[in-house]
Amino acid sequence: MSVPPIIGLKVSTWSLPLGLFFYSIMSVQQVSIITGAADGIGKAIAIRLASDGYDVVVADLPRQRLSMDAVVDHIKTTTGRKAMSFECDVSKEEQVKELVKATVEQLGGLDVVSVA
Description:
Distance between the termini: 37 Å
Strand content: 25-35%
Number of domains: 1
CATH architecture: 3-Layer(aba) Sandwich
Number of helices: 3
CATH class: Alpha Beta
CATH topology: Rossmann fold
Strand order of the largest sheet: 5-4-3-6
Protein backbone atom coordinates (compact mmCIF):
# COMPACT_ATOMS: atom_id res chain seq x y z
CA MET A 1 0.00 0.00 0.00
CA SER A 2 1.35 3.39 -0.95
CA VAL A 3 1.00 6.46 1.24
CA PRO A 4 1.24 9.87 -0.45
CA PRO A 5 4.12 12.00 0.84
CA ILE A 6 3.32 14.83 3.21
CA ILE A 7 5.68 17.79 3.04
CA GLY A 8 7.70 18.02 6.24
CA LEU A 9 6.64 14.60 7.51
CA LYS A 10 8.01 11.10 7.17
CA VAL A 11 5.31 8.45 6.86
CA SER A 12 6.08 4.82 7.61
CA THR A 13 3.71 1.93 7.03
CA TRP A 14 3.69 -1.50 8.66
CA SER A 15 1.46 -4.33 7.56
CA LEU A 16 -0.26 -6.23 10.36
CA PRO A 17 -2.01 -9.63 10.18
CA LEU A 18 -5.41 -9.70 8.48
CA GLY A 19 -4.49 -6.93 6.05
CA LEU A 20 -4.51 -4.13 8.61
CA PHE A 21 -2.03 -1.29 8.30
CA PHE A 22 -0.37 0.86 10.94
CA TYR A 23 0.85 4.34 10.03
CA SER A 24 3.51 6.25 11.87
CA ILE A 25 4.03 9.92 11.14
CA MET A 26 7.02 11.82 12.45
CA SER A 27 8.79 15.07 11.73
CA VAL A 28 11.64 14.68 9.25
CA GLN A 29 13.72 17.24 11.10
CA GLN A 30 15.32 15.05 13.72
CA VAL A 31 18.82 15.61 15.00
CA SER A 32 21.39 13.15 16.29
CA ILE A 33 24.83 13.34 17.89
CA ILE A 34 27.14 10.40 17.34
CA THR A 35 30.39 10.32 19.29
CA GLY A 36 33.29 8.24 18.04
CA ALA A 37 31.87 8.83 14.56
CA ALA A 38 35.09 9.37 12.62
CA ASP A 39 35.39 5.66 11.88
CA GLY A 40 34.17 2.18 12.72
CA ILE A 41 30.77 1.58 14.31
CA GLY A 42 30.29 5.31 15.08
CA LYS A 43 30.72 6.15 11.40
CA ALA A 44 28.28 3.40 10.42
CA ILE A 45 25.71 4.68 12.92
CA ALA A 46 26.08 8.27 11.66
CA ILE A 47 25.59 7.21 8.04
CA ARG A 48 22.61 5.00 8.93
CA LEU A 49 20.87 7.72 10.95
CA ALA A 50 21.40 10.22 8.12
CA SER A 51 19.98 7.67 5.67
CA ASP A 52 16.98 7.34 7.99
CA GLY A 53 16.36 11.09 7.83
CA TYR A 54 18.31 12.49 10.75
CA ASP A 55 20.55 15.54 10.64
CA VAL A 56 23.84 14.40 12.16
CA VAL A 57 26.62 15.77 14.31
CA VAL A 58 29.77 13.72 13.82
CA ALA A 59 31.77 14.08 17.04
CA ASP A 60 35.20 12.70 17.84
CA LEU A 61 38.61 13.63 19.22
CA PRO A 62 40.53 16.52 17.61
CA ARG A 63 43.08 14.13 16.07
CA GLN A 64 40.21 12.62 14.03
CA ARG A 65 39.36 15.94 12.27
CA LEU A 66 40.11 14.76 8.71
CA SER A 67 38.11 11.55 9.17
CA MET A 68 35.19 13.45 10.71
CA ASP A 69 35.12 15.88 7.81
CA ALA A 70 35.16 12.98 5.34
CA VAL A 71 32.15 11.40 7.10
CA VAL A 72 30.30 14.74 7.03
CA ASP A 73 31.00 15.16 3.31
CA HIS A 74 29.82 11.60 2.64
CA ILE A 75 26.58 12.17 4.56
CA LYS A 76 25.84 15.46 2.80
CA THR A 77 26.48 14.09 -0.69
CA THR A 78 24.77 10.71 -0.31
CA THR A 79 21.77 11.62 1.86
CA GLY A 80 21.25 15.35 1.45
CA ARG A 81 20.89 15.68 5.23
CA LYS A 82 22.55 18.40 7.27
CA ALA A 83 25.75 17.24 8.93
CA MET A 84 28.51 18.89 10.90
CA SER A 85 31.64 17.79 12.70
CA PHE A 86 32.54 18.71 16.25
CA GLU A 87 35.77 18.05 18.12
CA CYS A 88 34.93 16.64 21.54
CA ASP A 89 36.53 14.50 24.23
CA VAL A 90 33.51 12.93 25.95
CA SER A 91 35.55 12.43 29.13
CA LYS A 92 35.47 16.23 29.57
CA GLU A 93 32.07 17.46 30.79
CA GLU A 94 32.50 21.03 29.51
CA GLN A 95 33.24 19.78 25.98
CA VAL A 96 30.11 17.62 26.04
CA LYS A 97 28.04 20.62 27.15
CA GLU A 98 29.49 22.66 24.26
CA LEU A 99 28.71 19.80 21.85
CA VAL A 100 25.05 19.76 22.89
CA LYS A 101 24.81 23.56 22.86
CA ALA A 102 26.32 23.83 19.36
CA THR A 103 24.03 21.06 18.10
CA VAL A 104 20.88 22.74 19.36
CA GLU A 105 21.95 26.18 18.11
CA GLN A 106 23.02 25.04 14.63
CA LEU A 107 20.57 22.22 13.91
CA GLY A 108 17.57 23.28 15.98
CA GLY A 109 17.31 20.52 18.56
CA LEU A 110 18.51 17.13 19.70
CA ASP A 111 16.60 13.86 19.49
CA VAL A 112 19.17 11.02 19.60
CA VAL A 113 22.61 10.59 21.15
CA SER A 114 24.75 7.58 20.29
CA VAL A 115 28.01 6.97 22.12
CA ALA A 116 30.21 4.68 20.05
